Amino acid sequence: MKFTDYTYSRPNYDDIKVKMADLTKKLAVAASTEEARQIVQDITAISSAVDTQMNLWSIRHSIDMRDEFYNQETVFWNEHNPLFDELWTNYYRVIVDSPYRPDLADLLPETFFMLAENRLQTFSSDAIPLFQKENELVDQYNNLMATAQLDFRGQTYNLSQMGPFNQSIDRATRKEAAETMTSFFEKHETDFDRIYDQLVKTRHEIATTLGFKDYVEYGYKMMNRFDYNRDMVKVYREEILKHVVPAVQKLRQRQAKRIQVPDLKYYDLLLEFLDGNATPKGSPEELVAQAKKMYQELSPETGQFFDFMVEHDLLDLLAKEGKDTGGYCTYIADYQSPFIFANFNGTSADIDVLTHEAGHAFQVFRSRWIPSPEVIWPTYESCEIHSMSMEFITWPWMESFFKDQVNKYKFSHLASALFFLPYGVLVDHFQHEIYEHPEMTPTERKNTWRRLSELYLPDRDDSESDFLSRGGFWFRQGHIFASPFYYIDYTLAQVCALQFWKRTQVDQDPTAWEDYLRICDLGGTKTFLQIVEAARLQSPFKEGALESTITAAMSYLDSIDDTEL
Q1: Domain-embedded: residue 437
Q2: Residue at 514 is within a domain
Q3: pLDDT tens-digit map of 170-207
Q4: Which of 82, 285, 352, 471 could lock 449 by a disulfide, CB 3.0 to 4.6 Å apart?
């Protein structure tokens, strides 16, 4: 069965509400383990069915945000997602106190109960109108981004399609492309400010309604951060400033020398080499064929997985008009199908996003044995270990994508992992300050971004753009609008992924793949630090872990004469 044959049908909320109320009542008075087990399985089936339909809507809506049918369905889901959450929360309230809890461990691992207990603290029926409002505002942001039409040198492009121009070897072209993109955000500055201002205030009200001091405190519960807190994150940020920012500055100096500019401007940052960045060779169809061959050669497990993805048409990769920006992986439960969404634009990012999202998809494919939909995925920072590590594990096959530019690609790919760490921490730090001070004006928020950017990205020069100099760059970071606090996760996972890079590409450790496969199989049955331990990696919070990881990466980069690439 192909993805196009997967059937979307709007769930009947009223019927499901009655069924869930009945099952929850029966669970509360269950007379035996067997009875409780059957009820849990019945509830899981309902939850999976709803989740399946929600994902089918979400995927098809993001593929073409002009589709009127799925636009109308968006209204339904924005309104009803919190109502479904209410039903699941009522179930969690009963199951966490069930006397049969120990006997259900094969169906519901301990992490399920940890998630359920967090949900009880982060959801209230009183906040449903606020959750609905939040959904509507996020959809406004997504639509604004997806419908962007940029006029550039006589042609019309969306935001994703501008990627190659931002990497042009011609500096005037890079500058003009960057200015064109920036002008879109400046033109809609009032819209972005309005949407975000309402989101911040709505989220603050959600937090206080549920008894939290602020949305930061709420956010750590919402993100299920079982192993660490905001104080540990603060120390981690300081380590980034100490060990990573100086390393990145050195790499930026090398970049300026390579591309022969006296000073890097904001429009220079995406060009790595004077004769152009490494680009994948071949059509999208040829790249997918190469990926299929790569995964067949990597392992029997990855071969089986990618064959499944191709056979069922579970990849939507090309940038096109009306399509949402970015890339993601999701899971269609009732069809046991991962789905990969991307926006290929002819840059090396096409391969990065393919291997990254394939890492997510492979993990959830290997975790299909887990009966509970709540824990088929791990928590977000653990999820990103699978995706970011897969980018490095596939290095031996990069020649098939980049041909004679493979060394250029590898240098840029590793360097970009280091570039990302301060930026990722900046995004997280920014959100901490915003939600700690929800009364900030739009101008004050931009000033906050500018101040923190100067701290984490001292090499970034926005002086030729009034809008960027005022601190407007963050408008384009969708996570800030749609997924608050989902960003530090990428940096924590990157530190872990760099350890997998060293083990697989430098040390040639034969046990590394076994460890990677193990944590994919675990899914969400363990917490973040438990998964790190299972992979035999060092925790990013462990003293010296960050320094040793950065030292290894810099040693590799320093050993390469980048002027010869």
Answers
A1: no
A2: no
A3: 999 999 999 999 999 999 999 999 999 999 999 999 99
A4: 471
